[in-house]
Structures are given as structure tokens and as C-alpha cells.
Write a structure and sequence with these properties.
This protein is α/β, with parallel strands linked by helices and 170 residues long. The protein has one domain (15-32, 40-63, 70-162). It has helices spanning 49-60, 76-87, 99-116, 152-162, and strands at 15-20, 43-44, 89-94, 124-127, 137-142. Helix 1 packs across helix 2 and helix 2 (76-87) crosses helix 3 (99-116). The model has no long low-confidence stretch (mean pLDDT 84).
């Protein structure tokens, strides 16, 4: 794929953030409601509806509307692409087995950004081995700092206030 004209160079300092991935219908195992022990230092993906909205819009771009819609419309790569665009994620701490999925997510995010004239910076993978990490905990690095406000709700609201407004979401 040819690089988009709106691809940005990674220059900003990155901040690590722990996010509960609890809004993905394609991974029902992530929606069990359990929180890691240090829940005061987290944000919740379910409280950031733009991620789900963009993931769904990305999925619709490859759907054949003359066919029936699948029971689960989005894929994991759609959500990762949406996280790249909405949260400005530049690095995901993932198992090495997810490298291909992240490559697909970058391609989808880039194509969506190009079509909608959005800025795009690809995300990379930080290989991580956290054997005791809960399945629903995603470690990300983004240019937006997550300030610990003491609980999941206030952390997420404060983080969301720092995110740029995407022009296609009114």
C-alpha cells in the first residue's frame, strides 16, 4: 500500500496507558466485567464510544451490502485500527502472535484516514510477556497522557477530554 499523504512522523513523547478493552463484540471473553487489581490507574474503552463507532465504520468499508451482515460485524483489527485513529496509539504491548493483526490494523487505519482526510501515524508493536495480565487489559502508548484521577470513570473522562475531535463524528 502506498503511504498516505497524511501519514505523520512519530515525534511526540509517548505515554503508557492501561486500558480495559471491554467494548468489543468480537471478543466476548473480554467483557466479563473483571478489573485488574490497580483499577485506579486505568481507562475504559467502553466509555470511549468513538472507538466502537470508527471500528464499525472501518468494517462497513469492506462489507458487501447485497449480502446479509454477519452476526459479528467488526474484527479485532478494526478495533485496533480505531484505537490508532481515535486515541493516537503509537505502540501496543502485545504478544508477538498479534503482529499480523496489527499490520492489518495499520493498513485499515491508513486507508480510512486517507479516505476521510484524517492524520495517520502507524502503530508498532512492543513485544510483551505479561503471563498474569488479564485478557481484557491492553497496554498502549499514546501522545496523550493519562493522568491518574483515582478511579476508572474519572480517569477515562479526563483522558477523553484530551483527545482531538474527529471531523467525521459530529
Amino acid at each position: 500500500m502506498k503511504p498516505a499523504a497524511n501519514t505523520l512522523i512519530q515525534a511526540a513523547a509517548l505515554h503508557r496507558c492501561h486500558m480495559i478493552a471491554d467494548g468489543n463484540a468480537h471478543r466476548t471473553d473480554l467483557c466479563d466485567g473483571t478489573l485488574p487489581d490497580a483499577s485506579e490507574n486505568l481507562i475504559s474503552e467502553a466509555m470511549l464510544p468513538n472507538i466502537r463507532t470508527i471500528a464499525t465504520l472501518i468494517a462497513t468499508e469492506r462489507h458487501q451490502f447485497e449480502q446479509a451482515s454477519p452476526a459479528v460485524f467488526t474484527e479485532e483489527a478494526d478495533f485496533f485500527a480505531a484505537r490508532i485513529l481515535v486515541l493516537g496509539v503509537r505502540r501496543f504491548h502485545l504478544d508477538i502472535t498479534l503482529t499480523t493483526m496489527l499490520k492489518t490494523a495499520n493498513q485499515r487505519a491508513q486507508a480510512f484516514a486517507f479516505k476521510h482526510k484524517l492524520p495517520f501515524t502507524p502503530a508498532d508493536i512492543q513485544m510483551s510477556l505479561y503471563p498474569n495480565r488479564p485478557a481484557n487489559l491492553l497496554i498502549i502508548e499514546t501522545e496523550y497522557e493519562m493522568e491518574c484521577k483515582g478511579n476508572l470513570i474519572t480517569n477515562t473522562l479526563a483522558f477523553a477530554a484530551k483527545l482531538p475531535h474527529l471531523p467525521l463524528l459530529l
